[in-house]
Fold these 4 entries.
Entry 1:
Amino acid sequence: MSKYKYSFYPGCSSERKASASNYMVSVGSMCKKLDIELNEIPDWNCCGASIGYAEGGELPRHVMNARNIALSEKHNRGQDIVASCAACWLGTKETSDRLSASEQLLADTKDVLEEAGLNVDLKNETPIRHMVEALIEDVGYEELEAPVTRPLDNIKFAGYVGCQTNRPFGIDGESYENPMYLDKMVETVGGEAVTDYEKKVTCCGGALAFSEPEKSQEQIKDIVESAYDQGADMIVTPCPVCQLNVEIYQEHINRKFGTKFSMPVTYYSQLLTVSYGGSAREAGLDGNIIKARKLEEIASK
Amino acid sequence: MNDNNTAMIDKYRNSFLREVEDNVEQGEWVKMCMQCGVCSGSCPFGPHWEHPPQELFMMIRAGKRDAVLGTESMWMCTSCYNCVVRCPREIPITHIMHGLANYAHRLGLAPKVNPTRRFAKIFWDNISKNGRVNETSLSIKLYFMDGYSAGVKRAVEMANTGLGMFRTKRLNPLALISYKGIENPKQLQSMLKKAREIEGRRKGYPG
């Protein structure tokens, strides 16, 4: 029996050969080391993301998330839902809150699920949590430190928390303007956290990086520049969209502004995996387009 | 004119605030705004809004229906929730912006050319089809949404990025031909259709 057990919602970007497939690989390795059992919600669907609002409206969006909650309650009964993606977490938690607040919305949602022939009984009693919450609140920093065999010495990390892991729900006990948990995680595994990273909670543009690329790239430029200003070797983030946007648009920004950005953008789960003795492959480092050399070096030791 | 729009004009006449309260997600909060402007100053895309949120709230109260529903402003919302956590009155501003955009879109008043409006539709169609995001077809549809030649230009711009994604196994070109998604997408599609019908009925959309 594993020490910790969750109903896991990986989300679309974590699928095989999708944009955050390497996040998924590292989350899997990290959880194995920490004795965390992840039971994937069978046949989960997309959360609707943020951008779903325009065409999806309210009820259809909530129905998407309610389906996942109901499937989790049916197949992984009694287990908290844990999402590794910020948008998945936010969307699911928001739906859960709204359904709790409105009897009509809950009744409508149940009707829709039932009429579609989905054989579930939506109770909406399951806590919806982010992977980071499970790590900090259930496992705890002390236990996160215990498996460290290769501390991330001499690497300086700019902890880029971004938006949706931080707002509107955030992590209990942390501030919205300067949350500290990511820096603490970095230090827990022996890395050095940049203390004055002023773009820590700045928006990367989110989905608008696709529809309004120029406006978003202005944001991303600041996020990367600030990491360089603080002497960071790499950025670390808990969000798949932040990771994607901040990594892949650096070359576009270089072309446009004549900058020479080449700042690796990693996931917290990659840091933990490497520090716990995992290989580069187990940490999904082969999935980084801008190679995180310093982490690779430690992983190859 | 779109039937939904005609129906709402008939129903609400000159009370746009009430129309927003009844039909826009979290719209009942609009009257709580005290015009401090923290939301506008906190927005990452702030300079790109023709009318920042606090201005939109005042315009709603002043009955500026066409100007509010026809602006590109709320389409600039990146869903970063900075305004929400900073608002001294804890108004769910992000949701109201989403709600206004959705409402304008349903009434056929949202700017046709706005790229985020069009991308949002492509995205929703994408997830409705398979129950999950098919990132490959999403990207291609987005690049080509302004037609063939603009699409080729954008695809060329993104070619190296795509190659990087492919090499690191974060992009699957074969998903263009076959993508699996959830087990029974038809069931999900009927759920979404039903949900849209119920929502339309509750809000009184004829179309």
Note: Chain B touches chain A through 63 residues (CB under 8 Å).
Entry 2:
Amino acid sequence: MQALNLDYMAGLVPVLLGYLPLTLGMAAAGMVCALILACGLAVIRVSRLPVLDQAAKLFISFFRGTPLLVQLFLFYYGLPQFLAFLVSINGVTATIMGLTLHFSAYMAESIRAAITGIDRSQTEAAQSIGMTNAQTMRRIILPQATRVATPTLMNYFIDMIKSTSLAFTLGVTELMGATQKEAASSFLYFEAFLVVAVIYWIVVEALSWCQKRLEKRLNRAYQR
Amino acid sequence: MTAFRTLARTLAITSLGLTTLLGTAMAAQADTLRVGMSGGYYPFTFVERDKLQGFEVDVMNAIGEQTGDDIQFVTASFSGLAGMLDSGRIDTIANQITITPERQAKYAFSAPYVYDGAQVVVRKGNDDIHGVEDLKGKTVIMNLGSNYETLLKELPYADEINLKTYESNIEQDVALGRADAFVMDRTSASQVIKDKPLPLQLAGQPFSRIENALPFRDNEEGRAQRDRVNQALETLRDNGELKAISEKWFGGDITEAPQTEGAEKNSDDA
């Protein structure tokens, strides 16, 4: 067997790092949109709004029940067959939309669990001093639920960063796509994929560090 | 509703920013030719140190110089290219597209600009397989959506071949010994074996003649683009530029129709 080509790997690092902003950008955009959508879904599910609750249930069931890759193909390649205007949606937008829909379904459930997990006595106490339902939600429940939901939401964000690698199948050259192409011309597969694995790993490690700091901050009220 | 609007706006802004970053063109301008390719088919279209290059890239740029079109390359996995052409995301595909009757019925093809042959490639040292006739009972792999799949399925003993299609990296799986052979065009295969570290060898002679051309959508706009490109190809052929590009990448001329049936290409020893 041949030796590891370290020169090639070193040369590949700056090339691949050039694609990191796109990968992180798609994940960040997806995360922001998914959070907004997930909060909406969670509130609908918690408050059991008629019709909307059923719709939310169906939405979550579908987007949690099918692979992200299937969803991306369905929307990017499939739907334009019937809705011609969807052709104008490019691969990057389609990826962000796919990540948003897919991950919002998961996140809605963990936000819902965080909200329902807050002890009933908190709501009762808030109401006893005359807070309305909306006030109770905003001032009492959500701040506590945020603390509970943060670790799982960060988990989803990490998962989302890695899931952007599927964008290559929609013609988007992001981190994984760029690696795939470099490997296809050098045929140094191990070197190329090892470099990209380490890049993903470092990014996720950096995020985990941020998560720790964030959790510490959210825990301040509970420390004695 | 506000949430929805914010979502829509965020999407619009991010996609706008990222699109510019990526350089993917959306709308076809009159003087822009959007050319799809895989960027993973050495040495026709490949990426090295972030630079898209290869025979197809040079040919398309030369064509653009002739027609005055702005050539814009879009890379995507090979199997996705046809869908992108059909849905109008690109105008043509420069990826060694072989002319077949089925494709001819659907697309407006340019004049052929590469003459090649379908080649069986095996792991170095595999002397069981000397050509397409030895593939019975073997695992043979190829790129999804490629014409070689059709070629093999037309063989009388096709159901005795274990045929598998991949998205990419077929060379590696044969080099590793997971599959017995892959099928590719002779020119790329020879070049990969010559230039790259994979332990591979050609198995016998090419088994089918193939002609490569650029497919365009078969409508008024597509045919107009095709005609412009054909004119450019003719000029490039006459002034020797096409030949020069071929010699640069392959050390031989693959753009000229072979004179005799089954003529050997001069590039390589088998």
Note: Residues 101 and 128 of chain A are 38 Å apart (CA to CA).
Entry 3:
Amino acid sequence: MRGRIKIVLCLMAVLILAGTAGVFAQSPYAGETITVAVHAVPHATAVYNFQDQFLKETGIKVKVIEMTADVMYEKYMTEFIGGTGAYDVVQMNPQWLADTSPYLAPLKPLADKEGLDFKLDDLVPKFRDLYCSWLGVWYGMPWDGDVHLLYYRKDIFDKLGIEVPKTWKEYRDTASFLNGWDWDDDGEIEYGCTEYLKKDRMYWWFLDRFASYGGVYFDEDMNPLVNTKSGMMALKNMVECLPYMPPGSLSWSYMEVRTALVKGDAAMGKQWTCVGKAAENPEESKVVGKMNYALVPGAQWDGEIYYRPMIAGGWDLTIPKDSKKKGAAITFLHFITRPDISLQIVMDPNTSLDPYRLSHYTSPVFRALWPTAGDYLDAINANLDKGFPDLLIPGTAEYMNALTYEITQVLAGTKDAKKALDDAAKAWNEITDNLDRETQKKLWNGQYDAMKALGIVYKEWKD
Amino acid sequence: MKSGRKKLKRYSFVLPAVILLIVITIFPLVYSLTLSFFHWDLRRPLGWRFAGFSNYARALFSDHRFHRSLITTGIIGVSAVLLEFLLGLGLALLLSRKLVGKRILTTLLVMPVMISPVVAALMWRMLYHEKYGAINAILRLLGFGTGPSWLGSPHLAPFSVVLVDAWQWTPLFMMILLAGLQSIPIEPHESALVDGASRPQVFWHITLPMLKLSIIAALLIRLVDVIKLFDTVFILTSGGPGSSTETVSYYVYLVGFRFFRVGYAASLSYLLLAIVVVIALGFLRILRRREVG
Amino acid sequence: MFSRRALLKIENIAVYVILVMAVSLAVFPIAWTVSTSFKSVGEYYTYPPVWIPKNPTIANYTYIISTAGLDYLRNSLIIASLNLLLVLGVSIPAAYGIARFRVGGENLSFWILSQRMLPPVATIIPFFLLFRGFQLFDRQITLLDKHLGLILVYCTFNIAFAVWLLIGFFESFPAEIEEAAVIDGCSRIGAVLRVVIPVIAPGIVVTGLFCFIFSWNEFLFALILTREAAKTVTLQLSQFRTPTKILWGEMSALSLITIIPILVIVVFIQRYLVKGLAFGAVKG
């Protein structure tokens, strides 16, 4: 009798132990706390929403450090060169991968060691191939998928019987037609189009024009191609569109452009994907149900239109080389980008994070989120399909800043276009020399080959 | 012997400050000065490479963007500091009168310095908005039409930056001068007024000279600070449109912390330091000559 | 035409008109911040602007209190006040020595001023590397993410400011009065504490106020040298600006809460500013 009771008690103890172990020790890293550095709220909301579930499933605690978005690059770099290992997971712009890769941990060995399947086939191929790895080494998982869309007022276009512009020339003409009068009868003057022209990141509004006119960043010998006819055509179109934008546009950044679109001040505008969700939010939007989405215009070549919408930025999650908890970190990366979890994150307008998995685009739940959500997802897909990548070699930030410095002077009317683009090319050469021309050339050709494989190659504009 | 001890005693007044400053800054200063003679690029794992004077040569002779930013800083800085000084002096003189409600007026006038510059710049960016901003809304209410594009025009944008800086830092002059006025002995004024001097004369010949040291200190400090003007520009315009508001600190920041040319940024910083030292010394010398004359 | 008294009255009215105008210009953006802190998302960008929110909400304030906002406020308070004590503690004697005895001559005072001149970009990386510290047995001795780190770094620009301003105030105090006190049997230190300091108190409090504000509002060093434990409220405020959203309401609420400590100081030190009146100023 006694013996039996003992056995039963022992069994129960074992069961209880196993049970608690089942709850708290599903991961070998249970009990660890990882430090995750992401953008402040709204992005951080995604981690806050799921950290309890993560703790329950793995036993790993997450400490969120909210970063000031504008200055996180410099913050990371100082921590990296100091080798402090202060962060276990960091949010990273794909454009910085070339500069920061020496300080990051390659993900494949980590994933293999833990036996985690990241379902990489389910990632949008362009994000996966161009924006998550560098020189063939996989460093990051997407966290926010970004591409530019052309937003336009479907109700107005239908009412006036105008076509959605397919080329930059049509874009200019449509903007001109819709500019300076009250097309929605609300008693206010409206404008043709709106674009981000503040000096910090306005280059993305130049580059897709430039690329559709046949431009790419450099040729195979690392000679800058910004001052070619492609560059001139792009800049000319921008200058021509400027009068059809709301006053003050030269200082406008994301916030103002988004406001102009969702408050119904402008008929069209090229913006990131998150505006689509904002336009359907009645709390701030005056155009609920009136916005539609299209391919960013292109350039008319013989018989064919070249579309080159910018895959502008986006965000990855990466693991610093100096992290002391890489096992827990990769477990977190796997969890937060898992198809089911990430779908909930990208559907939630409070996170401001956008879809990046193929399964996000096909998800019936997402497609039913608002009446035109299906169109929205299709438009994202179409733009991604034609998408033109950022420059992804060391020094990208400096190349882009030098370009921006020149073209904003042209837009401000203080410099001649040809001179400005020539000066930009000169600055690019100086940057290349400073970073070592041969290395840069090799790295650029690596990227250029990948672009060529996608059918993107420099073509001289004849006009 | 005695004078030696006395000297030591006098030096002991300044020693704590000097030692503290040296302990804190010696390493960073030596480090960054050395760095300014090296190429060090955080984007590439090449480490430090000796550069001789080439960083300085590039900054002096071929970096036109740097030169342009110096001029822009000069224009924005001088207008801002002058505006702040004149407004601050005027307000301090008014506030030094016997007034009912002086405490509350002073407190309200000092409030702009309490707002974090980042928030102030964001708020002003909102206020400057062509359509949704409060400034143009008031102009519309007063019947001035649609109002200008404060940040979007290369001609107006520098002025708009000056305005934000003046809004935030006028209270510094006001408070320093107010404190200076409070500690001025009253007798010279009264005897001068009794002697029939007009009030502007009293101000010019008696009040102003007594405030002089406070004014010089405040002007120098603000000049030094305005050359470091950064957060406001960063948020309001990012240095645009074109190059119209690109100040030298913003440019040096870009070079050091966006482009990570750390060595070059260090040499730009030391050049800037040299320029500021020359200006400050010149400024002091001019004022001193006045004193002699 | 007008009696002297009438003229004075007109002048007084003019003074008030000018001051009230100046006050409204100074306070306008702050009033806008107050209004914004009670707005909800739909009211940030409207045409015409919403001056007073229709359905004022305190959600922004409850959000700040429910998150870590107030911890950062505490960090700022610790850093700014300890830095202030340190700075005034070394600057008052230094300024006195320079003003009264010309210690070190021009060179010393100018060297101190130059501490404020170098752009932070040049020194921030060495500061980071220095503060990273070293491993002592199993403990990391570090100044990163520590209050002490910022307290020390802020000395570089605040001592320069304090010494220069205080020199001016000490020099404006007539040396003869001080000497007279010394002859009357005071020690040198006693004379300074009992005779000089009370007179230049307005100058000292104003200097202290701005030292406090400079530390309070500093951004770049705080960004690089802290992470979470010693993060300042200024840093937290900058976070409300994200690439996809500016959290206007939350930002306004926190920045108004942040003003309160400084406001209290300003109201408090007015006593010294008014007290100074006994010693002079142009009478109206």
Note: The longest helix of chain A spans residues 2-24.
Entry 4:
Amino acid sequence: MEALISLIIGVLTACGVYLSLRGRTFPVVLGLTLLSYAANLFLLVMGRLVIGTPPIIVDGTNGYTDPLPQALVLTAIVISFAMTAFVIVLALKTYKELGNDHVDGIHKP
Amino acid sequence: MMTHLIIFPVLLPLAAGIILLLLRQRNQLLERGLSIISIVTQIFLAFQILSAVSHGDILVYALGDWSAPYGIILVADRLAAWMLLITALLSLFAMFYAIPITEQAGRHFHVLFQLQLFGLNGAFLTGDLFNLFVFFEILLIASYSLLLHGGGRLRTKAGLHFVVINLVGSTLFLFAVGILYGTLGTLNMADLAIKLAHLPAEDVALVQVAGLLLFSVFALKAALVPLHLWLPSAYAHTSAPIAALFAIMTKVGAYSILRIYTLIFGAEAGLSAHLIEGWLLPLALITLLVGMLGVVASTHLRQQIAFLVVASVGTLLTAFGLNTQASIAAGLFYLPHSTFATAAFFLLANSIAIRRAEWEDRLDVGPVIPHARLLGGLFFVAAMLLAGLPPLSGFIGKFMILHASLAHSALPWVMSVVLITSLLSLIALARTGSLLFYRAQPPNPLSNTASITTIYQELLPIISLLSLCMILVIWGGTITQFLHFTAEQLLQPSRYIEAVLLTGRN
């Protein structure tokens, strides 16, 4: 499972980097979203992958799930959500003001 | 009251921002009054905190009374108090300038301004790495909106670049935080420092990756070469008071570099000690050089000042990169000087540009502007400050940095780069000044600049910011002494760590 998760994070990051280097705003926004997904998943995994153990230690259990990364990742998700919303609105605004959706405002056919 | 003192600089702008949002611009006078009262109170609070920590105490505030390292804490030491004071003073004068001009350009100006201060104050006070990330995001999202305030083609384009690059920066920050938590199991800065000193050798490489990732994030915020490319267009195209307020934004990056790499990756970090020592100084010197070449090559006044900001970051981080007590003190003296001087210059550039009709701030022979003597005199003072000519604070700051570098092995590099760039800035600013004021043509009777007659409202914040630089010189002895103690405190992180981890235990 560790290998699968790391593979997913790697693919998400690679796609995110590729897309955010594109010339048009829509792929860039998509790339940023994928990057933030990768970061959130990475943050979650940093509490180690544990199945079936409680987050709060009680008698009679061995091992626990670290609840802190889950709290961190919630905060990070909310923040990246807000940022994505902002950047979408900004991308629309740039499209309206510059007349095209190129990040530098220059349309290259 | 005293125990809760250090939460107020965070709560006050947040509360003021929320109240201002609820007012919905029903009453302009009330809105302005509230905004200014909030900032003035923040100055007062900053002075209170400064006097409380000036004897070397470190104030720790455990939010919700959850003691460190489990809860989030706010920490006020000399450095944090110093940064709070600089931010509050700068924001007051930026606000004074904004009130007659920029405020009308869009809605929620005051709300965003207060939230920006909320983020800044929080970033300076927090003692938790994830919390630092959160405050970074708060100040960034406020800054995105402030940067775009008023709109316009070029501003929107520069804003998009600024937002995208900072979002990538935030992602890197999260990765770094994740690695640190995954290997060290904590995010409290003081606790991180302790855990790092006892790190098993096989994890060291991983933590160093996280440390360098963090460095690249802070370098991005501080506009260190090669991550400086977003700054000139963003600062040159936003409105003047916002550009002036943003003079502190690059310093947040510099502050974070200083904090993290003295506290966590400092001398006592075991195998990861002095992690960025080999990177910071060369990059800072290159930044200084690149910034100053940008100043020489600029075609517009605001662009020129934006490059001066890049160059000042270079000088500041050169001082931090030398990493001795004297050089850090020198850097901390240079920090408010460069902040106030560039802020005043941005405001002045706007006052000049709106009087030059269609020439705006283009560095070209234009018409004689009204109040040319007054504005020219202020331009002269600001240029002298930024070029570092005696007897003003720029000279003292640079002199202290050069003096601190005397014993350092990189002395020839530091000396030559700092002195050559000072000469370059002198040449560039002299050329700008003569273009704007001496070689100006008589005004074209058709151009309509007569509508702008009131100038004294604009002059007050500019003169105040320039006089703050004078105050740095006049009380230079006291301030320098305080900053030496600040640097001493930074280089002994054990006192910070003790203060944080012992809170709530007794």
Note: The CA atoms of residues 43 and 348 of chain B lie 23 Å apart.
